[in-house]
Amino acid sequence: MSKIIVRGGKKLSGRVRIHGAKNAVLPIIAASLLGMEGESVIHDAPPLDDVLVINKVLESLGVEVEYKQESIRINAVRLQTCEASYELVRKMRASFLVMGPLLARMGQARISLPGGCAIGTRPIDQHLKGFEAMGAEIELGQGYIEARINGRLKGAKIYLDVASVGATENIMMAATLAEGTTLIENAAKEPEIVDLANYLNAMGATIRGAGTGTIRIDGVERLRGAVHTVIPDRIEAGTYMIAAAITNSDLYIEGAIGDHLRPVISKMQEMGVQIDEDENGLRVYTTDRPLRAVDVKTLPYPGFPTDMQSQMMALLLTADGTSLVTETVFENRFMHVEQMTNMNAQIKVEGRTAVVSGGVKLQGAKVCATDLRAGAALILAALAAEGDTEITGIHHIDRGYVEIAEKLSRLGADIKRMPIELLETEKQREPDTLPLFVVQPTLA
Ligand SMILES: CC(=O)N[C@H]1[C@@H](OP(=O)(O)OP(=O)(O)OC[C@H]2O[C@@H](n3ccc(=O)[nH]c3=O)[C@H](O)[C@@H]2O)O[C@H](CO)[C@@H](O)[C@@H]1O
Ligand SMILES: C=C(OP(=O)(O)O)C(=O)O
What is the DSSP letter of 81? Predict the structure, then answer.
């Protein structure tokens, strides 16, 4: 187990390369289960703990997986079982994305309930509603969800009550092998949905409308492996954009796609941050200080991403004036607030809105990453703070950022990873066995 120690106040400079998107590669790996012939090769697969976990899920199903130098070779021809165990699914919620492909290909699937993570209850009712509309019978028992279909899934018209990213992906994957046409209405529009649809189409699927509110999937009989390069991670890119602004530095974010980051770019520009776009990435720098306070409300894409809310809050702490940050996607995504308060931040939470008073000097402190993006935000706040900040709980951060301390250090930050000396009793709880969320049955 390790911790990250940051001494604040350093300027950053240079270029940082953005890795492939975690939230794109996870469904793409799950979709590879649909390959009934040939193998898939997925390039720009980021070396993250989450990627290792979903690879293990596939291996546990009898699939051959080889992961080398950010490319994954997957051969699912001999897919054997249709059960994903609690041991793996509890480690990462996105493991539930194997449900759709397994049901489509094997006619049944038995997956442990993913439960709700620290940021909210995160039910899966919309995934199940979609499978049921396609003719599946769903049963819940002993912490597992079992879905079955006699013969093939049937195309259906499915209106999602919330534009859920995971439900859109799971239903879209299941529908590729269904008999007839499926329409997903009020579908999520995130760039990761479009990347998944592109991959499925390369496998032989017929999907139109991904990236809009209505996705049409004309079912086909068979899919085969395909070669695909994952899109750059817009949340990793956004995090480094904030690193540049919060330290008054000048950074080039290599690989960032401006069109995927429009709401983040526009909010940062409103604050007074300079952003230049070209075809290879973004240059982010500041010319005027202090930055201006702005209000931010998270929304499904193309709104401001909830996965950037905590990092944006860190930046707003350094702005002049009071900002309102409203979280509408997850009901419990302000856990970084208490940790930031330990760093002298002045934030008051009122329901779904945090009132952030900017301009108060942040002080280094001992803090804990309670979830992935909360952890990233604490690192950002620490870069701007006076003195040393010690961040524990970094197994959360390693789920979604490739070598964050090493990348920031190469840009000039005073940041290092240090082993944590564990007491004998604590050694029994190794980081990779620590659940990332509390498992609780949350069907609806
Ligand atoms: C691996 C991955 O891609 N994770 C992303 C994905 O998570 P994930 O796919 O889990 O998020 P969803 O879009 O499904 O969740 C959005 C909202 O819908 C609700 N909901 C969802 C499903 C459902 O069946 N019923 C329901 O009520 C959730 O509780 C939440 O309030 O999108 C989130 C929203 O952009 C991001 O924060 C996560 O980083
Ligand atoms: C919440 C996130 O991921 P996940 O859905 O995998 O928990 C995230 O990437 O910020």
Answer: -
